[in-house]
Fold each of these.
Amino acid sequence: MFTSLKSLIDQRLGSGVITHELSTDFGYFIFIHQKHLYHVLFFLKNDPDLKLTLLDQIIGLPEKHPISDMTKDNIDTYFTILYQLKSLNLPYRVTVVIQFDRAQDTLPGISDIFAGARWQEEDLAKSFEITFLESYRE
Amino acid sequence: MIHKNYFKLDESLIVSRLHQKELLDIQRSADVDAKFFPLVTKSHLTPFFSHLPKDFALELQFIGNKVLSARFDRGFFGFGLLELLQGLSAYEALPEVSRLHILSPIFYQMALLLAFERLTDTPTSEHQGLHRAIALEFSRIAHHITVVKNIVLCLELTSLVKMLDELQGLLKNPVATLSRIHQEEHLSAKPVTLVETHDAVFDGLMLVEEIAALSHDDKLVEALAKKCFINITTASSLGLTGPFLRAHHVPYDLRLNQPLRDMYGLPPAISLTDGGDAWARLALRLLEIGASLRWLKPALYRFEKQAVQIDPIVVGITCCQTAPKKRFAFGEVEGPEGDVKIGIFTGASTDSYVARVRSPAYFIGQAIPHLFSHITISEIPLLLYCLGITPPEIDQ
């Protein structure tokens, strides 16, 4: 199913949402811009073909640990955030990867999509001084 | 050539404060589970406690004797861990992480081991895998027995308490035997004989079936039915896994997926119950004890027949001497309370690592406001027991 995830998202949310993708032995990784995060996660959770209803974990990684190649010069404020989602019924997982500069960007809070995001966002905010917008609507 | 590693755990390490008291518990008396992992009992745990930023807290608001709202406050080990681990080699530092959950340390240790082996592409033999699976299942049984015993003790169901004591006693010796294999057979390469273990598993299975039959006691059902209910949509949205999903008849179990599936051979039957309340989860624990014992019977025979060389279940020197083959890796196991996961991420330009831990208790803590709605004050201790929270926690 996930060989076509990019085309599915392109079709439903518009092309260019996924900047690149990666298939690993720990599931499928999609890289998106943070401005698309809320809608992509909403889609992944609620799409009847996907139903990735379980928020497994949100992981914050400081600048030197991005999964893809570094592209920005200012690594002091550069972060990678992973949103790992799972399906309850099928053995697959999708990780949504955001790479951003915390000095310039904020992240949308997703606790109204996944209630379990609240503590994790608070912890990332405290630990890394990342700003999450509480009620995100574009 | 030894590849030098620097293992770094930063303050964002996501670990529930629930585990602190479990760490204290194990200092007081050696737990059955800990014998699987001798490093835990030999190590000194105190440095964890002096760096905690705030106290554990459960805040409750009442109308009359009804809980109106509940909030669970938590903290992190991060600062303490960082200080504790700084400067240690990866080999020295990695076992420390397993102490994050001492009631069932082996689940964390296994997740860490799997992550590290994936990171370094270290192969494991079928016999090693089986050994690990056996250790996990004994640990799962011990965990569930402890939780169920706490519940029936709280309700003063003495006959069930005695039977659970007997079951716990039966399984202590086999666990000790397997623990000794770790230490002795590794060196001497003598054939493994597990006659006592086979007998204990057989007797244990009979006993757990009796316990399951008696668990339909009216007092127990009345105390737990329709309590701590959480629907499946909310549960998955909150990140609750394991018993919270299987008590809704959802066959979600990491033992069905790779790499655990290979490790187990044929995994234990996945137990399921209906209702999604505290009663359904208690019934599930008893079913899971039975399923694990049933799986152990043939698994122990297979284990005996295979090669005798057994490596301890820790991140070995081979792993630590191998340069990472990947930029990141995850290790994931089915813990008794839900998914236990550890991710290791390598640095882009240095030999440093960052680790991230997923602890089920973190998500259970976050779900307490949902679980504790419409309960009375007097029910709180019992329902905390049902969530696998230990007696010293409840005293707090």
Amino acid sequence: MEHLNHDVLIIGGGAAGLRAAIATAELNPKLDIAIVSKVYPMRSHTVSAEGGMAAVLRTDYDNFDLHAYDTIKGSDFLADQDAVEFFVREAPKESVRLEHWGCPFSRDPDGRISVRAFGGMSVKRTLFATDKIGFHLLHTLFQTSLKFENIHRYDEWFATSILVDNGRVDGVTAIDIRSGELVSFLAKAVVIATGGCGRIYQFTTNGWIKTGDGMALAYRAGVPLKDMEMVQYHPTLLPNTGILITEAARGEGGHLLNKDGERFLKRYVPNKMELGPRDILSRAEMTEIKEGRAFEGPYGSYLHLDLTHLGEETIEAKLPFVKELAERYLGIDPVHEMIPVRPGQHYMMGGVHTDMHGYTGLPGLYAAGEMACVSMNGANRLGSNSLTECLVFGAEAGIGAAQYATKQGPPSFGNPVQGFALDEEKRIYDKVLKHEKGEKISTIRTEMQKAMEDHVGIYRDESSLSQACELIGDLKQRMKNAVVEDKDRVYNTDLVSALELDFMLDVAETIAYAALARRESRGAHSRTDYPKRDDAQFLKHLMVYETRTVPRIDSMPVTITRWKPEARIY
Amino acid sequence: MSQDIATIRVTRYRPEKDGKPYFQDYKVPYRKDMVVLDALNYIKANLDGTLTYRWSCRMGVCGSCGANVDGVPKLTCASFLHEFKGRTIKVEPLTHFPVIKDLVVNMDDFMHKLVEIKPWIIREKESPPEEGEYRQSAEELERYDQFSSCINCMLCYSACPVYGLNEKFLGPAATALAYRYIEDSRDQGKAVRFPIVHEIEGVWECTLVGECSVVCPKGVDPMLAIQKTKILGATNALKSLVMPRGGGK
């Protein structure tokens, strides 16, 4: 098998991966860096982020402690407070770097970057570029990365396993999608930054590529996944497609209405209303639906997002993408008409366990972005913290990897690493690709998505979660005989889908098991059988470890620095 | 919701099996709100797992899913099936690009051109982040803003007859992006970037057909960028401007 050598490998070309690559390249220009991404970096799902990125730039009314407190309260006190404090201090520097690299931020009349209100943030601190910050951030980072001659790229290469020998990472195996060949990449350090796993759910804002690859890669390499039960539901998705309507629509003054035309949030978050945190708003919508105060449509129940009072000028200037999406996909002009919305899966608070510097605990392996769990988001992430998180911890992971790689000698392609790579080749081409009789990939995928949607959704209980664990376990068995219809080597998306589904089933299982183990309600995790937060038992992170049978759950204390857990009232 | 049946005629080309491309028809039930991409996904999941195409966001921003739909370059996620009611909908790979498989085209050429135009801010000296952001007025932003909206979907190259004849032509998207940096008040790299866009295969090749601006799904006007670059070039030549040194590679 062919093998390629680089000093630092970055798996994933979204915000966190690109930021890591740039940080590595800047720290040590002699390092040979490679970004391995299953899509061209500018296709990464960062591109779909809309509302903005949070950072304390307005020190006349804002400060680090306030940003930290908002984030910690938003997390329902499950965030590690040292990580949050580090994050808020780095956030302004990272934002300004991004601006210096060319991000076309929206501006105030004095030329400063504009800020807007966002859910759970007590003051205006969300920087934005109309309502397309993710797109602009991603393209700015990608285009900036092109100036570094020591950053190489492998676009449309799909990582299938992490090579570990003697307790350290030696590289990865990856398929060159275009040729269909499996290749070993040897590296001194690896940063994984492949994003979330929304596609394990039926109804999600996430793109097709969000399949939890990096989570499964690290999990299979022995690294625990943390806070996996914490799945964020966003309150405003278009009911038919799951297309996200940004929280900025509410930040700019939009209202949520039930079928009686009532701003129902006054009964749930009277002090914050539409700017309450996402977990509480999504549950409020579910209650309105359950109690019969929602609209009924061909795609189930929905509420109204009303922007009509904002006026055409504000909508055109601040929310042009909302207008474009509503017009194109619903034939609705939000200047004059209400937008139908309902909650849906949006983000994973949980992910690959790392410390504050992106280190996973496995020598040579670093992680950042939605895929990682530092944990600064705890049980519920505040909108507009995640892009900044990608920058802050992407940079940390890149620096960590660069420092480690600078000290390390190169790995060699001897045994057992070569053996692992050959085993991987057999798994993919002799098993996954060869099966002739069995179920379609799409059948298993659809059943997994339904199981997660029905049993591990906004509300959970012992019975639904036990059922989910069982269903996912069965699907994992059935997956062993699933059939890849396309037998070609060249650009085989059917094969990639099968490998992605195999990853997603592992990740789905960790979510279901962790959710079952957390017998309390906290943040996004709502157990109808344990409706209260239970700090005595559960002020801790659940850590999920891969075993040959079912996942093993362990725990880790939450770091509290200055903010004692208190009732979370908005 | 009522359902109709659409006939989707897709170009198939699998280099390991097929000597040349051919069409394959699929019948897809659809509702009013379904797009061509939904039809492709329906085919892939239910009828034929070998059909090959790119996609991700399904909301018109990742730029992956471009194809020629009924002969016109479009994002398949933004082309509604009902608009072709009663007709066979032909879905072909974007023209002017080598085909890797089915609807997947090779866009290496653009990826190289993107690097050539140096799409990053070039400064003689960078300020440390502690000094805060570079100020930029709304008017300064306005001068390059639309050109920064390019999603690299390649529809403009597919529509461009000049690129069809001469693949060395820098082309619409790359020129729009070059102009985006040239017009950015924070950038000091004009001297480095100008020769690239003004070379033989740069803006002067454009014959002002304007199809690029028509097909752009994001309202970018690459032809305007090309025009403005020409004007800037002419002005600079007249002034015999002494260019500052740029910091690009």
Amino acid sequence: MRPDPRGRAGAFTLLEVLISVTLCSVLTTVCVVACFRVSALIHRAQWRLVNHEHAQSLYAALDRSLGVLAQHCALVLTSTASTPGLAPIPGQASPSATGAVSLTFMHGKENNEDWDWESQGNPDNADLVWETWTWSESDQSLRMAVSSPRRSFQLTQSFVPAAGGPDYVYSTFSSLPQPRRVLDAQHPFWTLNDNLLFPVDPAQPTASRAGSGDYGDAQDLTNRLGLVLTHVAQLAWQLVAVDGSVITCDDSSSATVVRNGVWLDGRLAPSLSTPVTPAVVAASDLATRPRLVRLRYTVSDPVSARSQVFSLSFATPGCAGIP
Amino acid sequence: MSGAPTIRVPGRTAFTFLEVVGTLMVVGVGLLAVIALAVDGLGASARSAGSLSGMATAVTVAVDPQPYLDDASAPAWSYAPYPLSGTGPLSGVAQGPINGYWAVRTETSGDADIIAQDPTGTVYARGAEVSVDVFDTIQGHCIASYHTRLIRQRATP
């Protein structure tokens, strides 16, 4: 600091001020840059942390469901192809996108002591419920639903059976999810709604004259779809069957894959007396049941445009081992 | 410089240039320490993320030596299985990148583990010990380990 010849307080020289200002500028620049970088790192770390948390939760949920996969019930994979030429922005909703992939199956245990049809109302089978996982490209979300173990409603309209009897108006009815071993061309996925108690018209499988409370399993699943994950840019399922075949279901094409359930009594052919030969085994529903279910999904971050792929595999019950 | 004259107040002194520079240096070191602390915290956060899904990844690889990987990871995944009808101590290794980690799966089986075999020596089912280690990077820290026993079964029919 330069002394003032007139006895006043000394002032900084221009050089000292310049050096101080330069140091302040350097420090400020370093701080600002560091703040931005740390902020980006924090965002990235939080995004990664959240993704891994979600992956762990998703694995736990699917492992719990597929671990009790009802092998005697049909399993359905459906996909709708993405719109050609439309490339949605990763992690962001694209309302016009059409891609979709879903997996629907029944989980729970069957009471093997009375596996016949009459046991459907048995409380022992009350944990047999349908479950669906649906990915939609339009909002890049993964949603899931589990059907209600029991649905009840009150009939608000007059109904007298054709064969005669009392009028059931104001009576309370209930229905349980119905296990379906076979879903084919004659019994598509929507026939899960056949357990409507008061259907109006066979052409309207989801409609009931009893009101909104009477609906079938498929409609029940649709009503209950809830959000699980967002920013899921891609999702695909893969089934590894007992016979070693592999089926992939993603949004590259539109397809429906059905794996019919096995017979509860262990037979491999419609007739119990059919001898078990390799040909019979190969043609049986057991051969195409999944022993492994694989899930692969990509999570995208709309902020940083980063993405992370997760691959998860689940062993199903009753089809032990890997080929 | 022109302007109002500076009045010297008795008993009061101003900072010297060295004091100003020293203060700025101390502030700078403090800021760097804060930044270093934040970066270190991020590292800890990343490590905790690994412990979250590491076990799910380990179980996935244990039940499935050929997981459903994306196009970028699949070429780096290697799988060397042993012959199902082999004899003596057998081992197979699968390893590669999955879910942002590096997984190493080792499967061992011996003659005593054979469950079903026909007279020609063809094995249809055998038990196997499976160990999976999941690392945060190649040669990195092990964040999850899983050990199980499973049945290796020839595809039916």
